[in-house]
Amino acid sequence: MKIAIIGGGAAGFFGAIHAALENPKADITLYEKTGKLLSKLLISGGGRCNVTNACFENSILVQNYPRGSKELRGSFEQFSTANIVAWFESRGVKLKAEPDGRLFPITDSSETIANCLIDAAGKSGVKIKTHQGINKIVPEENGFEVFFQDGHKKLFDRVLIAAGGGPKLSFFDWLKDLELNIVAPVPSLFTFNIADKSLHEMAGISVQDALISINSSKLQQRGPLLITHWGLSGPAILKLSAWGARELFDKDYKFEIRISWLPELKEDDLRNQVSAVKNENNKKQTGSFSPFGFPGRLWKWMLLKSDIPDETRWADVSNKMINKLVNNLLQMPMKVEGKSTFKEEFVTAGGVSLKDVNLKTMESKKHKGLFFAGEVLDIDGVTGGFNFQAAWTTGYIAGRNMGV
User: Fold this and answer.
1) Best exposed site among 22, 40, 90, 285 by fewest CB in 10 Å?
2) Across the strands, what pairs with 333?
3) What residues contact 156, with CB distance under 8 A and at least 6 apart?
4) pLDDT band at residue 159, thresholds of 50, 70 and 90?
5) CB 349 within 8 A of CB 66
6) Lowest mean per-residue pLDDT among 70-74, 163-167, 210-214
């Protein structure tokens, strides 16, 4: 039996390894179109590789996938976070958890993960070929004819497509002979561009708990928020961008948000607290201390936004000023005018429709012997190791079922 694994990323390698383990007599070749294997894995997590997340309850794990959460529930019963941790540790690669749940190799080097995968593939008999781009795959009665970019073609009994996602629908043109339903890709995991120079001057400041809501939408997210030189980032923004990927695409990334810098407080409670601060510090300047735990620079900026000069004494702060300050602390308006890719995490929402795939085996419902794994599928997770977990899980399931 001849098996082609198309794509030298995390899903492709994991699929190839498990196809070989299940079918030791099969002739298995992994094809990568570039000259570099596992390129995305090597740069992920700042070169440390965020392997997965320390979320070991599948019912909670699936909640981190804006696309695919329902479908992955059964898949994670087959292979989940605990399984990938055990798999790497059984091969001498120990992982460590960071406070936010992200899991990295204890070496803090993505090469540790890449070398482990390449070694496991080699030991299981997988042949690896680079610079092997593919133009098309044509289903035949006795398998699949794969046409390579250098002009040659080969017939395979089984094919696993793990070639990743792409930013445009045209990325999937090479699959058109398979007549698959492709969900048009749109960006996911991005930061917000905000054209407010006074905000940019706060770059590097973060708050641990903020609530960001998008106007005229049900979209909102709570969590850490980071101010950047171009706008806003941090887990709350990235999760919001993932859950709102399609809606924000339709808005052409131009929309208004509101930020609650103190989401645990109701308006009346905050108003009472501000009044108490005023009464207890009436001789002090408003900018001389930060009463709600914000960094000093951020507090002075909030005062500025509320038309309160930071040298104003609290005794001279009017009710009108307090009203504006309370409003800004609980629902500060900002205009988003574009997006930026978050570090190296280029993730797309979209790909091969899950309606075309048997998620128990990752086999195509249209073509027996054709399988899918990784970001080529319409599955994407929020930041934190969840996209790699989807790659391990779908690669494992596909590989295990390729001999059936």
Assistant:
1) 90
2) 258
3) 2, 3, 4, 143, 144, 146
4) very high
5) yes
6) 163-167
- The three-point CA angle 344-349-353 to 5° equals 140
First to last CA, the chain: 11
Non-local (6+) Cβ contacts of 52 within 8 A are: 81, 84, 85, 95, 103, 385, 386, 388, 389, 392
pLDDT band at 97 (very low <50, low <70, confident <90, very high): very high
Q: What whole-number distance in Å separates Cα of residue 300 and Cα of residue 306? A: 10
d(CA 367, CA 385): 31
- Determine the average pLDDT of the residues in 345-359: 92
| pLDDT for position 343 | 64
Helix (H) or strand (E) holding 129: strand 127-129
CB 387 within 8 A of CB 45: no
> Which pLDDT belongs to residue 382?
95
Residue pair 4/145 in contact by the 8 Å Cβ criterion: no
How many Cα atoms within 13 Å fall on the side-chain side of residue 231?
22
| Mean pLDDT to the nearest integer, 35-57 | 96
pLDDT in tens, 196-245: 999 999 999 999 999 999 999 999 999 999 999 999 999 999 999 999 99
CB count, 10 Å around CB of 344?
12
DSSP readout, 292-347? TS--HHHHHHHHHHTT--TTSBGGG--HHHHHHHHHHHHHEEEEEE-EEE-TT--E
Q: CA 143 to CA 140: how far, in whole Å? A: 5
Radius of gyration of the chain (CA): 25
**Residue 301: CA atoms inside 13 Å, Cβ hemisphere, count?**
17
Whether the pLDDT of residue 347 is over 90: the answer is: no
pLDDT computed for residue 346 by the predictor: 72
Determine the length of the chain. Answer: 404
- Bridge partners (DSSP) listed for residue 259: 212, 332
CA atoms within 13 A on the CB side of 348: 21
Q: Residues 6 or more apart from 60 whose CB is under 8 A from it?
A: none
Q: Are 359 and 294 in contact (CB under 8 A)?
A: no
Among 357, 380, 13, residue whose Cα is nearest residue 181: 357
**177-182-184-189 Cα dihedral, nearest 10 degrees:** -120
